[in-house]
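Thread: "does anyone have the structure for this chain?"

Original post by V.I.:
We have the sequence but no experimental structure in hand. Need at least a predicted one for the grant figures.
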Amino acid sequence: MTSHTGTVQLGESDSPRTSVIQVPAALVRGGTSKCWIFRQSDLPTDTADIERLLIRTFGSPDLRQIDGVGGASSTTSKAIIVDDLGSADGVVNYRFAQVAIDKPSVEWDSNCGNCATGLGLYALHARLVPPADGVSRVTIVNTVTGLSLVCEVPTPGGEVPTYGSRQIPGQYYPGVPVDIIFESSSWTSFETELPTGSPVDEVTVQGRTFHATLIDAGAPAAIFDPRDFGFTGLESAENLEELVALAPALRAAAAKTMGIPSHLTSIPKVGIVGPPPAGETGVSARMISMGALHPAIGLTSAVAIAAASGRPGSVVANAAVANAESTDDDGGDTLAIHLLNGATRTALDAAVPSKVAFQRSARVISEGTVLVPGD
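Reply from O.Q.:
Generated one for you, tokens below.
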């Protein structure tokens, strides 16, 4: 296990171009994302210094991130700053950072359920939370957005598994089972799940009107009706260039309608939801992440879709194909979301969901020290 020996100070050498900053870190796979986890006690206290450190650590703004630890995609340019000193009693506080690839910037104002999944396992692995005999419950709290969720990890005999056999769509290798649970009591970022009070709103961009469900659940999201674009929601990535091109304008217009402050430029998440493939139940979805189609879906976006499915008249409810026998192991409802790379399934409360759960997997891939140039 990595030794943590103190706070990194930027500018600790008189020759920054020849100095190297040594930063302890762990690389964790959570769901379909990879995330670098840093301890707050190992980092500068100033957020601006942390941002500069992350940008150089990940290798941005090189699109290949070739001189850093980033993976040149939205799902691999992510970081978590975990409060290793202030977390207690099974509750882990953290901040999630989406490190831009094409520009030297860091976004703090969103959530990532996949990275939170990885953090749930890491918290037990690093003994930030002592594992229980049987199943360990770790409460994860994003101190920026306020989102609180629970990770349940099997820990037989109080031992934290290093590998597991749970396979999920979009992930080639299996991992340690992690069930992640979102609850409506904490999943809104701005207090109101439907900011306008309506299940469907009109959003006008470039003289065209689009119908969308604007919802704040998991993360603020603008879920558009694909028919307004001439789509079905089942298109492949190469056929959705118009949606990708319009996404920034759609996001900005939806944000204004939702009352989201203009300086928060990464929310709401934008996507389309339509009927499922023929013969299937649930819905289809295509979501945008960092200016490109997400190969799967962020869990927070999946929460937004699941929550909207319980709102009569919403884009999701209108598109969903139900199956009366579609239930989870506890007898609750499930919603299948068909994506570019397969389907993911949520377990949710009936009617208007107050709880949404996912079966995910995670793995601690590496622990060590990242050597960051002092420039």
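V.I.: this helps a lot. The radius of gyration is 20 Å.
O.Q.: and Confidence is low (pLDDT under 50) at residues 1-7, 9-14.
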